[in-house]
Amino acid sequence: MLARLRERQEWKFFSVLPKADRGLATAWWAVLALRGVLPAVFAISMGLLVAAVQHDDPLGGPLAVVGATFVLLQVMTPIHQAVSANLGSRVAAWLYDRLTEACVRPPGMGHLEDQQLTGDLTVAREFDFGMTGPPMHLNMDFIAGSLVEMVGGLVSVMVLFAFRWWAPFVLGGAWLSTHWLLRESGVWRDRNTDEVRLAQRDAEYTYRLAVDPPAAKELRMFGLAGWAIERFIDRRRKLFELQYRATRLRERPVIWAVVIVVAANLAVFWTLAGAAAGGHLPLGRVVVFAQVAVGASMIAFGGLNWAMDGASAPVAAVLRLEPAMEPAGSLRVGVRPAYGMPAREIVFRDVGFGYPLAGSPVLEHFDLTIPAGSSLAIVGQNGAGKTTLAKLLCRLYDPQDGAIEVDGVDLRDLDIESWRQRVTAVFQDFIRFELPLRDNVAPAGAPDDVILAALADAGATGLADLDTPLARGYDGGTDLSGGQWQRVALARTLCAVRQGAGLVLLDEPTAQLDVRGEAEIFRRILDATRHVTTILVSHRFSTVRHADRICVLEHGRVVELGSHEELMALGGRYHTMFELQAQRFESADEDEGVELDALA
Amino acid sequence: MRSPDAAADEELPPALRSMWRLCRLGYSHEPALLLAAFLLSLLAALPDALLALWLKFLGEGLLHDDPSKLRLAGVGLAVSAAATWFLRTVSSRVQRRFRDKVSIALESHVARLQASVSTIAHQERPDYLDRLAVLRDQVFVLDHMYMSMFSTAGWVLRLGVTIALLVSIHPALALLAAFALPTVMASTWRPGVERKAEEKGAPHNRLAKHLFMTATTAPPGKEVRVTGIGPKLVEDRRAAWERWYGPVASARWGSAVWHTLAWALFGGAYVGAIVFVAVGLDASVGSTLLVLAAGSRLSAYIGATVGEIGFLRGIWLDGSRRLVWLEDYAASVVVDEDLPAPDRLSDGIRLEAVSFAYPGTDRLVLEDVDLHLPAGAVVAVVGENGAGKSTLVKLLCKLYAPTTGRIAVDGQPLSRIRGEEWRARLAGAFQDFFRFEFVARQSVGVGDIPMLDDRPAVAGAIGRAGADDVVDRLEQGLETQLGPTWPGGVEVSFGQWQKLALARGFMRQQPLLLVLDEPTAALDAETEHALFERYAAAARSSTGNEGSAEGRITVLVSHRFSTVRMADLIVVLDGARVAEVGTHDDLMARRGQYAELYGFQASAYR
């Protein structure tokens, strides 16, 4: 069962080669075949030459054959190397194309967050980064080298048919049997079990913890280096012991293999020597048979080696992921155009929603009406479901119960692309494209004057030239601070508004701005988005009081809804929360009765 | 102390020294396995090289009608073929065992070196990061280097035996080896050319990778869908990749052409050698056979040696040079630290004319800073983005040393206080905290390693950080695995991570310096409020109770003035300089920058 599965994996690998590059794949196989035949041809041409020398025949012909074969034998290696490297690179690129497409195509998000799929995705994603093994362009050469040996050995052994009918079977069989006898020690079969994988990830994680920058400060502050390294050594050692026990050479099979190999070789060579001594074989043929009999040992060294596994596993993973991602990330297909929406209102009607993996639902029986053309702020504690509302409005997910209606139409009935053209959003973890400023503001493209105007709206004028890549490591690239990035992200949204987006979603858009910037940026944003529907997600009161309406969210429910003035007058939850922060500015020491030893 | 700058400008250490050092390292960890692996690779070379000799015997035996020589040749061929296989199999297993063992040693060596450098310049400077990336991500290239050296030794031995066999026919045949020189030259020169092409295209490759990650991970996936740029990402990624691939592929084809020419030259010489032996010397059939067999093997051995040396030069030697560079670097930043960390603070920490620029840059992030942080005080640091607040914190934590000026702790220079001891007396949380994806108990507990498994201590810290609600929401409480990619692991929101980071920062109960570098940026109003009460409480408990506490200084970096105003001392940074220092009331009375900023924020609430 397992063996059959593995065969399929390798089969998939080879079937991908021509898809990645037909010409190179053909060349790769052709050179492989040629390199496989050449050792036997060389042995035969050697025999011809020796016979000619022995009989004082003219040497020109045999010499030319020997020379040509020899040169071919030599030059095919570097040529094959170049073919392998380029084919490997193109296979990797093809796989990455498939993977990118498979990830991007589904309209929903489920396929990127599904735990099983992300495991596969990680394997598939990192195969060519050189971390878990050699990258594809090296692997192809390793695979080629190993296959050439196998083919070369098999072709050589075939020549022995001309000597004795049984010789190829005896010798070829003996060399092949080593593969079977030592199969356990060749490849670690159980290395893909959950236990081994977990140990591997655990070791890797701890190692990264010790050496990668993100944890550097805390690693030093808390003196974790020694602890992390011990933990790493412990995990790694366990892993290697598992591997060693699984793959070490076992005495019995080794002894059997040695006995078989020695016996078969002795049988063939002894017979050959006997035939030569008896004068039944001319020298030329003896030489040929001796050479190919020696060459037969290539069978034992060739085959589908370890590199094959490293190369075919990601191929299989990618091919497996493609069909699996489609349904996981699919959403119901709607056809109605969303032109000009929302014109009247957006209504959450009895909406229930929970993330696939989380235990409890985020929203239950959620009702909310958002009039078009106004601004609404959503405030609440962490985990109250604020961001979820924004995601539902982008239709990254569909609610499990109830419906979201735009101008009376169920969001699910709208053509998703048409709807998303109406929406623009900045999330807390917005994308920082390592691309020129222009593409950061308008990823889908926009005229320069629109981009500049959007940047001005966001207060990000003069950050950098439009052609400056916003990341180090690129020609002329520069790095922005967190606050500057935030402005760029806001400009991206404002640019979309200028291009006609009708619904603006801002999910904690100012978390990284400083005081002065915050005060300024909100004036600007509310100005620039006055004519469209704006939804602002925040936990800061300084941002939300300017919104037309404020919605206080608690445990997935609307607790209060109204303008700043109305809610203040109401004296409820919003009032309390607002006062809580506001009072910090008015008096210093009103907070008696707090436990004084809290930090001691 | 040698300037780390100087180390950066230096080239990587020389190749041979690096290789030798790596050998010694391997020997010190696994002497027996190293020797066994080395000897076996030599031994495995012998029967293989002798094959040509047996072939000669075979020819001679036949021509001279010498059955015993024929039998000897037959047995010799059979045993050589079998022994070659057996020794290669065994030696590869021994090598693998050695590699596994030594790779643990190497990886922990690299990790220890990096983690033991007390400053973090090498973790933040782009040029150092690039240099270390290879080492960090591909430690396996280092243990490959041992293999490569072993096999090189084996190939060289085969080469020697084969040349000896050729010389036994005629000394001039040794020249055949000289004709292999162009192949050696091509093999040493071309990998460098290919590498350069790859490096030149590195930005394209980086962009392709970036676009790929953007398209295939969940967080950016949201915007990718809303903006509808998915198909464009696919195209742009491929285009960036093609820009990288084009020159690289050409360089590879170029290499193939050069190698082909070099080998063709050798092939010509080989044919010449056969003619020379068969016609020129008019030698026996046995000799012709020998030159045929040995000559053809010669090429295989040269090819293998050259290939192995190419690998050594191209990849593996490079790794060992980086390792030696890291060793040197780690040694260079070990400074004369001879003072213990104090038990308690009485005077406080003084910064005297401290200036700082990040290594490798010219811009001063802090300029001529004079400050006194009194023992027992809560000190708030405010200022706009990029004003050096976090840098100040890093200097106090001894993660960097000031470029000029000095920091004194109760009069003792911080530079001489042993870094590890000093940091053992620190606690706190950073804005860019790390998400320790362990079970919740450990994720918090690592803040004080000795108390790692002490549940009450961890629970206490969680309480102090106001993170009870985070833990309450976890299904298995403190034993819940954090991080959704682990089995049974749960996703925790950014704000919840931040609370856990804060709890970790509160694990140590008696720090001399508590650093809170914008620890609540992502927290909501109520949590923030509750936390500020604790700061206030802490401030009072240590100032009101002099003598009993350890004189702890709390440094709070924030841009929220509602928090800042509670501090005993407020430091306002403007650009790289200290603009104002004083209490809230002092600074408000001065009507300076602080008063202006405060007014700005407070007005939002009126």
Concise description?
Chain A is an alpha/beta fold.
Protein topology:
The complex is a heterodimer of chains A (600) and B (606).
Chain A: H1 2-20, H2 22-54, H3 60-104, H4 110-113, H5 115-126, H6 136-159, H7 167-181, H8 183-186, H9 194-211, H10 216-221, H11 225-247, H12 251-277, H13 283-295, H14 298-301, H15 306-328, E1 345-353, E2 363-371, E3 375-380, H16 386-393, E4 401-406, E5 409-410, H17 416-422, E6 423-426, H18 437-441, H19 448-457, H20 482-498, E7 503-507, H21 515-528, E8 533-538, H22 541-544, E9 549-554, E10 557-562, H23 564-570, H24 573-586
Parallel strand pairs in A: 3-8, 3-9, 6-7, 7-8
Antiparallel strand pairs in A: 1-2, 1-4, 4-5, 9-10
Chain B: H1 4-9, H2 15-29, H3 31-63, H4 67-116, H5 121-124, H6 126-137, H7 140-169, H8 175-178, H9 181-200, H10 202-216, H11 218-227, H12 230-280, H13 285-332, E1 348-357, E2 364-374, E3 378-383, H14 389-396, E4 404-409, E5 412-413, H15 419-424, E6 426-429, H16 440-445, H17 455-464, H18 468-473, H19 494-505, E7 513-517, H20 525-544, E8 553-557, H21 561-564, E9 569-574, E10 577-582, H22 584-590, H23 593-603
Parallel strand pairs in B: 3-8, 3-9, 6-7, 7-8
Antiparallel strand pairs in B: 1-2, 1-4, 4-5, 9-10
Helix pairs in contact in B: 2-3, 2-13, 3-4, 3-7, 3-13, 4-7, 4-13, 6-13, 7-13, 9-12, 9-13, 10-12, 12-13, 17-19, 22-23
